[in-house]
Amino acid sequence: MADLAVNIAGLKLKNPTILASGILGVTKDSLKYAVQNGAGACVIKSISKEERKGHAAPNMHAIEGGFMNAVGYSNPGLEKAQEEFQNLSEVGAPVIASIIGQDADEFAYMAEHFLSDEFAAVEAVLSCPHTPGYGTLAGQGTPKATEEITKKVRAKTKLPLIIKVSPESQPIGEIAKAAEAAGADAITAVNTMGPGIHLDIQARKPVLHFGKGGVSGPALRPIAVRCISDIYKSVKIPIIGCGGVTCGRDAVEMFMVGASAVQIGTGVYYRGVEVFRLVSEEIKTFMEEEGFNSIKEMVGIVNN
Amino acid sequence: MLKSNRETIKQYNNKTIIGKVIKIMKSSINMNDWINKLDKSVMLKIVDRVKETSNVDTFYFDYRLNSRPGQFVMLWLPEINEKPFSIAYDTGEGFGLSIAKVGAFTEELFQKKKGERVGIRGPYGRPFWKEKDAKNVVMVGGGYGVAPLATLAEELAKEGVKVHFISGARSQDLLLFNERLKKLKVELYTTTNDGSYGTKGVVTDPLREILRQEKIDLVYCCGKEQMEKAVFDLCEEAKVNAQVSVERYMKCGIGVCGACSVDGTGAPTCQKGPVIESATLRKITEFGKYHRGGSGKKEYFK
Lengths: 304, 302
What we know:
The complex is a heterodimer.
Chain A: E1 6-8, E2 11-13, E3 17-19, H1 28-36, E4 41-43, E5 60-63, E6 66-69, H2 78-84, E7 95-99, H3 104-113, E8 121-125, H4 143-156, E9 161-165, H5 172-181, E10 186-189, E11 193-196, E12 199-200, E13 205-206, E14 213-216, H6 221-234, E15 239-242, H7 248-257, E16 259-264, H8 266-271, H9 275-290
Parallel strand pairs in A: 3-4, 3-16, 4-7, 7-8, 8-9, 9-10, 10-15, 15-16
Antiparallel strand pairs in A: 1-2, 5-6, 6-14, 11-14, 12-13
Chain B: H1 3-13, E1 42-45, E2 48-51, E3 56-61, E4 72-77, E5 81-86, E6 89-90, E7 95-100, H2 104-109, E8 117-124, E9 136-142, H3 146-158, E10 162-169, H4 178-182, E11 187-192, E12 199-200, H5 204-213, E13 218-222, H6 225-237, E14 241-245, H7 269-272, E15 275-277, H8 278-281, E16 290-292, E17 298-300
Parallel strand pairs in B: 9-10, 9-13, 10-11, 11-12, 13-14
Antiparallel strand pairs in B: 1-8, 2-3, 3-7, 4-5, 4-8, 6-7, 14-15, 16-17
């Protein structure tokens, strides 16, 4: 029998599909909704110290072969988010916190004051391409910044620590190494690519209000797969693949280059929230046909 | 993928294959079912603008939207913002949006003249629907909430459904589509809070009376949330099923961003609503109490 369960950085998941940060995830009940539809775990929408309204709309839209977004980290801020994310056992699957900061000290502050034992892990996002002051626009995508932020967050929390990296940070293996050396337990690879620009030529304006945004979805997938492959060859800690997974074959592809689980975001747009259940079923069908008994057996087989 | 191959897979999925066809892996699925999905705005000219009340205008567009009453579109003003608006008219050849000037975005929109373009995407959301056994229904509309209901009433009346239509507003100058409603084959009840037109009072007054006197099969409702909650409570008391259009702060309109997810079900209103029936409304713990703003922070209804 093909077993879909995975164990990653101490987290036990019934299946390897995880709701990616920024998709649904604003409220506890929206996480529950994803889990009811098959997600094996979920990541909340990223939380900053203060409330943020984010960029004006359109802040996400479809393109041929994918999606673009520049949401700008809208979130209610640390205090309100703490009220929101309580009694997380009700969600029915591990809940991973997502934190952002303008520098290493703010990340440390978030780790110290926002994280509670109710979270199964924390994902620190160093890789947003469309919010001034954060992520790659604040230089957080370098090995040095990655190491510094990881170290400071590590010092403030005992939760499994996941670092989410940008496909723009290259060589990405070096970024992952820096995170590993500073105490990270896993890497999420990758955040959206870019920023890119998409115009409405009738309007003669970019569609996204911010003017540019991160590219996700199938268009990003080959890049994501290569990044996972590079990281797998560079570090020993597990990798959570992210970037354009819409079906079982896409997830399997990421396992084969080295991911132990996958996050799904844009896939929710393509196939509805049921995407988690569908992808799990499709992975299982593949495993049964090809004679794999566990996800682990597939991890990295291309690179081993 | 070759056409023949695709067809074989389709047959396989439908389980109509018998015996000795080429073996196709079950895990080869047809991505065409979703991979070409593409929600984009189209820039449409405002072909007409009609003043409805002191602060409401209807903006008309020549475009086959193929919407159903209760659905909405996202309206984009480049470099300003994008907001959801309920569809007031859809003739098949064109559609109209009745919009109140209530904030920065709509003030910008009201600067737009006939012939100028705005971005439109949609239609989105779950519309009002007909119930086969509903032969005697009530529609309750507050302010411009009457627009989708008027379209639905026209359709139902044609099919022989008895429609009681309650239209309410604070005062006469805010009553919408009064002339349009008068032309409908419905029993029309009009209320104003100040008594400047129709019966002085609120929409729940005639509703309470109707529910007391007749066997009502279904209540349709669209308006401000507290009014909707009061209507829903009366329906629950009378054990009458309701369909209510629930308004939430929406950003993407396509079930992704999570801004309009409601507590209780967690489902995004843009996809699983805006029209929601009693069985689901009972599970939505925030209904009538609060909604969330752009950052996700709760905002309580006053």
